[in-house]
Design goal:
homodimer; 231 residues; alpha/beta; 8 helices
């Protein structure tokens, strides 16, 4: 989002955010009506969002029906990687929306029309790779996960606080690389909690599959919780 | 930048960009008058912008006088790391500008007042960690460098094209990690050139110092070029 110095800009930004929040509520009602738990994944480019889905979706198959909305500025690469898993996927390329640096509720709502929501239990929404702007927009999700790779450094939760404040779970990814880095995992954990003391926190490597189990259990709990709250 | 669907939003965004471009020209004139070459560094969180400066500034000392503007949403960590090198540094925290996800020309201009520009030959501007939004704003720089770490993956130039289109040099960082990754460096190079065929491209590791020489030579050429164009 641009800075908001003038009064007219503040008014415009406020009205944009209010319109977004109305559309987010519509999305949330659609998810509830269809019995779908929508999980928004945010993080920097290369934080490992698509790799996480590639390792998770096969593990969930048989017990729940998953679908994916993949957000990118350009290319359909992520959708192609997800489609190879045999689950429904819709690619949102924000180039047609002015190269937007995040997903908005309206863009997500339009894309939901292309999915059979009643045929899903969980919808993963892979946001545009950006640790800043996606955190500012409610897209109607039931839960939000922030991914931070160990290569990004332990100071990042302090430098990008909103992404961690607005998430229910922090996933520290690419832990297989830790032996080759100078990263301080204890400081990283401490910095996440300094910003959001009650956030859940898991560490994993999609490559080695270490730590994937607790993340899958978290997804199971979220999906079960959103089904219970409707019954 | 938010999406621009309504006419009034398009007008606002256009006027914001025009105001930015005017202020960018002012900055550029100040750099020229002071004989300073301003180099804007953009890239994702953790792409290695601060580490690059930590390894480069000591190598340039004795032959040119360097200063740094460090942009972040929150914290003064980068400025502290740079100050340890004994060069003038000003930290811009965009939290006071609404948590902006990029530097704008006006913000940079205000920060220039805190530096003795006449005492510098090169000013490194470390933009906010974000591979999307900083590329949209001219801040009056003489050259722009996009950093992409090998851990982010070879598809990123295609997914974040504007950052590569708007840069004069692409620096592929953290090459010491290549043996531990599945990244395809040849494809990465090809993808950078597909977006911007004439961009300069270097690979380096700030940690091992491999490849730092050609980058330092590029800085020397840019600084010499901007001095010549004034004499």
């Amino acid at each position: 989002m641009p800075t908001t110095k003038g009064k007219s800009r503040i008014e415009i930004v406020t009205s944009v955010m209010q319109a977004n929040d109305r559309l987010a509520e519509q999305n949330r009602r659609r998810f509830a009506a269809a019995g779908v738990c929508a999980i928004d994944l945010i993080g920097s480019p290369g934080a490992g969002k698509t790799s996480l889905l590639e390792v998770s979706i096969p593990k969930l198959s048989g017990e729940m029906r998953a679908g994916v909305l993949a957000g990118d500025i350009a290319t359909t690469r992520d959708a192609e990687r997800i489609a190879a898993l045999g689950v429904p996927v819709v690619q949102i390329t924000t180039e047609s929306f002015g190269g937007a640096c995040h997903l908005e509720a309206g863009t997500v709502g339009q894309s939901l029309d292309k999915l059979d929501l009643d045929g899903l239990d969980v919808l993963f929404i892979e946001n545009v790779g950006n640790l800043v702007c996606p955190a500012e927009f409610d897209i109607g999700h039931n839960a939000r996960v922030v991914l931070l790779s160990v290569t990004e450094g332990e100071d990042k939760p302090l430098k990008y606080p909103l992404a961690f404040l607005e998430a229910d779970l922090a996933l520290i990814t690419k832990t297989d690389l830790v032996p080759h880095l100078d990263v301080d995992l204890e400081a990283l954990r401490r910095n996440v909690r300094k910003i959001h003391p009650r956030i859940e926190l898991n560490m994993l490597s999609a490559r080695s599959a270490d730590g994937v189990g607790p993340w899958i259990d978290w997804v199971r709990r979220k999906v079960a919780g959103s089904t219970e709250s409707r019954s």
